[in-house]
């Protein structure tokens, strides 16, 4: 059977090449996703400012949320990451110094600092400068002095104004340095006054094993600290970059699994087409005594050989694709450029295994009918296949339809807000599987619908083409299926993102009433700025504006996910006038001190009422008991709690509010306040909108990769299908048809394939988009411009026509008699 398999591949190059291409691109995509996952797991961030430390100790930023039953060891808890900088106790340095093998301990005190007229940078104590590969000229700073970057344009001895937490102080430049990051160094006394201890560099004694030292430090400090070594040390300098690693892991896992499923469908379609084109030879093999098992082994052998060759060829390109994807993610702010891309042998092996699995699953589906058909029936069906519905197809199609329907019901009745999109990917896959299994029947229905309009508009070529579609419905379904998959995935993925972004944007902005927003040009507002704003003529209300994320510690909040609870810091005296939140109980004027206004849904989940205590873990890890002073009605899925701006700001990295909301009849008058930039209220939503657009862009990029893959399968399948009809085209020409007439007939068939594929793709996407749109926006139709649908449909139509007409033109070049007599 091996010899027969090799000979079959030799003489069936078209099917071999088509299957090879499908497996090659599928393996490359899975390998690329594996590279992204390995990069996220490794989180290799080479240190810069702390490169001289053998180990860096930081406070642990990830933690386990509270459980409903703390005594139940079997109950799982959500693992979350703190969004703000987490300070450490100064006494930690003494514990580290006492560990054997530690030669030197270097505390790193950090804070945000702004040189007036320049972007915000980070300030540090000068004692940590010894850990960086800096070139510093001048002297170490004394109290009231600072070391700036050479690129600042300042000279030693210059007087400069530097703002820290909204307060501007005068400093003398004592030194200049070349820094890889925007930093400035202060004296130890000034740093302790202005900042907090956020990292500790550890220099090991000569001959100390770093791994052993890491274990000893971890044991001495306990679970509340992370001891970073190697490329992990960079996470202390770039904590926000380190957080993106989890996103990379999630993205790679989701889209890698999605790619595997799509690859299975594409390869099954391509391999199935190749097997159908060989029904005559398989029928002859069965007639001369070949057993079903031998036929299956032959097909499996072919699939194995092709998949091994394809995955071997995809090994290097898969790494290139992964690197290209990571570069795009880094350039668009999804992953920090400081992270190093890694793709070892494990992602490549996983990709190869996925391609092999896809090939074997496809081979099982393709060989089953050919191997189980009786020889006499196979010979009778070898010319034109008419039977297609089997119990296998029917059962799995019903299961897929049932799964899609169940997800639709869950989406509409259970899912809320942004999490409703989590069912979109599985739903579109289930509907795609169902329609693929039933594609011959669905294609027959679509052709029946468009048959008369096409005949009326295209005359003789259309009549001939529609007659072909009626006879060759099973073969035609092989061409319609990839068009259906490509358009269906494109419609579902794109409109899911446009609807998600619009839904989130509306929920975020609908509660804002500000006429203008003041933005600090000094890195933050001091407390006296708000009072100055209220005295400006025309101002009727003003409130500081701070955003962060918190986590309910007690009582247990069953509605809280691993992302925590969004927090907005406002000023009590202006909150009611500047926000239009619906108050269920209490009043926002009580938002002073350690208080909170909770979303009513969360309050119900916790069983708390006005006046009750709620322990909140803020973004810097500090747990603060707060008193509930109001309950607010929030849109499901977009719940936000309100807290005093001063309370929230004190638990953020910045330490102060950077924006002030204002209601005023004369926004221009606000320009008289020093250190502010006046903007409209859209500024409040810019960061949130940018975050939403970034999330959407991620999905556009990775979904576009899947869509491109299915588009390649469209071309792949149609080229093979059309090239296999050379004998048919030759017979038509021998019977009197001219080359142009045959070409026009093929063009009409291509048009029919495109219309049927796009129509079925629309139905597939509707099974996903309608329930999602109802859950997210209470609308049957998704949000997004109609040109997206037209562009996708147009691209699918152009691809289909090109992949049909170009092979037809080449097939018509030889003499008709040569194509009819060719083997």
Automatic annotation (TrEMBL):
Q: Which UniProt keywords apply?
A: Cell membrane, Membrane, Transmembrane, Transmembrane helix
- Record membrane topology: Multi-pass membrane protein
Record-annotated membrane-spanning stretches: 247-274, 295-316, 345-367, 388-409, 429-452, 473-495, 697-721, 742-766, 786-806
Q: Which InterPro entries match?
A: ABC3_permease_C, Macrolide_Exporter_MacB
Q: Does the keyword Phosphoprotein apply?
A: no
Where found in the cell? Answer: Cell membrane
Q: Which family does it belong to?
A: Belongs to the ABC-4 integral membrane protein family.
- Report the protein name in the record: ABC transport system permease protein
């Amino acid at each position: 059977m091996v010899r027969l398999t090799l000979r079959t591949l030799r003489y069936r190059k078209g099917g071999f090449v088509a299957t090879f291409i499908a497996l090659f691109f599928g393996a490359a995509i899975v390998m690329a996703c594996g590279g992204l996952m390995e990069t996220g797991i490794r989180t290799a961030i080479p240190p810069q400012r702390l490169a001289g430390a053998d180990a860096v100790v930081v406070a642990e930023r990830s933690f386990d949320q509270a459980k409903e039953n703390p005594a139940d060891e079997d109950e799982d808890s959500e693992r979350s990451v703190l969004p703000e900088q987490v300070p450490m106790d100064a006494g930690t340095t003494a514990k580290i110094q006492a560990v054997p093998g530690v030669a030197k301990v270097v505390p790193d005190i950090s804070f945000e600092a702004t040189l007036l007229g320049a972007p915000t940078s980070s300030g540090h104590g000068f004692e940590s400068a010894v850990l960086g590969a800096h070139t510093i000229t001048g002297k170490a700073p004394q109290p009231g002095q600072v070391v700036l970057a050479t690129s600042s344009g300042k000279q030693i001895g210059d007087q400069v104004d530097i703002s820290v937490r909204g307060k501007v102080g005068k400093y003398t430049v004592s030194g200049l340095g070349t820094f890889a990051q925007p930093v400035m160094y202060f004296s130890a006394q000034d740093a302790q006054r202005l900042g907090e201890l956020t990292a500790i560099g550890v220099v090991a004694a000569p001959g100390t094993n770093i791994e052993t030292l890491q274990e000893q430090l971890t044991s001495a400090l306990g679970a509340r600290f992370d001891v970073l070594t190697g490329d992990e040390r960079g996470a202390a300098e770039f904590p926000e970059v380190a957080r993106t690693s989890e996103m990379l892991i999630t993205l790679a896992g989701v889209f890698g699994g999605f790619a595997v499923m799509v690859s299975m469908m594409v390869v099954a379609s391509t391999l199935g087409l190749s097997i159908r084109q060989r029904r005559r030879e398989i029928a002859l093999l069965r007639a001369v005594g070949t057993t079903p098992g031998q036929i299956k082994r032959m097909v499996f052998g072919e699939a194995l050989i092709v998949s091994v060759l394809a995955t071997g060829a995809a090994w290097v390109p898969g790494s290139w694709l992964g690197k290209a994807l990571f570069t795009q993610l880094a350039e668009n702010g999804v992953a920090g450029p400081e992270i190093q891309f890694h793709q070892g042998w494990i992602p490549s092996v996983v990709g190869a295994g996925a391609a092999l699995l896809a090939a074997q699953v496809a081979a099982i589906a393709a060989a089953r009918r050919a191997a189980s058909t009786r020889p006499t029936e196979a010979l009778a069906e070898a010319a034109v296949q008419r039977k297609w519905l089997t119990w296998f197809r029917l059962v799995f199609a019903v299961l897929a339809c049932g799964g899609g329907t169940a997800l639709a019901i869950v989406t509409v009745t259970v899912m809320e807000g942004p999490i409703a999109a989590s069912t979109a990917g599985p739903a579109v896959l289930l509907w795609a599987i169902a329609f693929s299994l039933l594609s011959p029947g669905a294609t027959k229905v679509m052709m029946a619908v468009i048959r008369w309009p096409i005949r009326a508009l295209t005359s003789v070529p259309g009549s001939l083409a529609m007659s072909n579609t009626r006879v060759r419905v099973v073969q035609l379904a092989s061409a319609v299926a990839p068009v259906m998959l490509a358009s269906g995935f494109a419609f579902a993925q794109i409109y899911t993102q446009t609807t998600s972004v619009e839904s989130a944007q509306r929920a975020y902005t609908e509660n804002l009433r500000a006429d203008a927003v003041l933005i600090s040009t000094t890195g933050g507002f001091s407390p006296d700025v708000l009072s100055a704003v209220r005295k400006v003529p025309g101002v009727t209300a003003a409130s500081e504006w701070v955003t962060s994320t918190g986590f309910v510690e007690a009582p247990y909040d069953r509605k809280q996910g691993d992302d925590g609870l969004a927090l907005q810091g406002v000023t009590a005296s202006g909150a009611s006038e500047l926000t239009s939140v619906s108050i269920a109980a209490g009043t926002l004027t009580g938002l002073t001190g350690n208080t909170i206004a909770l979303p009513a849904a969360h309050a119900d989940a916790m069983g708390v009422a006005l006046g009750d205590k709620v322990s909140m873990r803020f973004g810097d890890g500090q747990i603060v008991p707060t008193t509930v002073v109001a309950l607010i009605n929030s849109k499901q899925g977009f719940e936000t709690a309100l807290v005093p701006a001063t309370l929230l700001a004190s638990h953020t990295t910045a330490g102060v509010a950077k924006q002030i909301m204002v209601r005023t009849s004369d926004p221009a008058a606000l320009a008289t306040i020093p250190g502010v930039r006046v903007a409209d209220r859209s500024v409040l939503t810019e960061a949130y909108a940018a975050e939403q657009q970034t999330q959407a862009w991620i999905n556009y990029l990775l979904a576009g990769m899947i869509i491109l893959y299915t588009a390649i399968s469209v071309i792949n399948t149609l080229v093979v299908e059309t090239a296999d009809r050379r004998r048919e085209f030759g017979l038509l020409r021998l019977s009197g048809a001219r080359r142009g007439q045959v070409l026009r007939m093929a063009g009409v068939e291509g048009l029919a394939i495109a219309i049927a594929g796009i129509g079925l793709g629309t139905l597939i996407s509707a099974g996903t988009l309608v329930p999602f749109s109802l859950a997210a926006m209470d609308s049957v139709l998704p949000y997004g411009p109609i040109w997206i649908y037209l562009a996708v449909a147009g691209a699918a139509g152009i691809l289909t026509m090109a992949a049909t007409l170009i092979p037809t033109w080449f097939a018509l070049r030889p003499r008709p008699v040569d194509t009819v007599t060719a083997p």
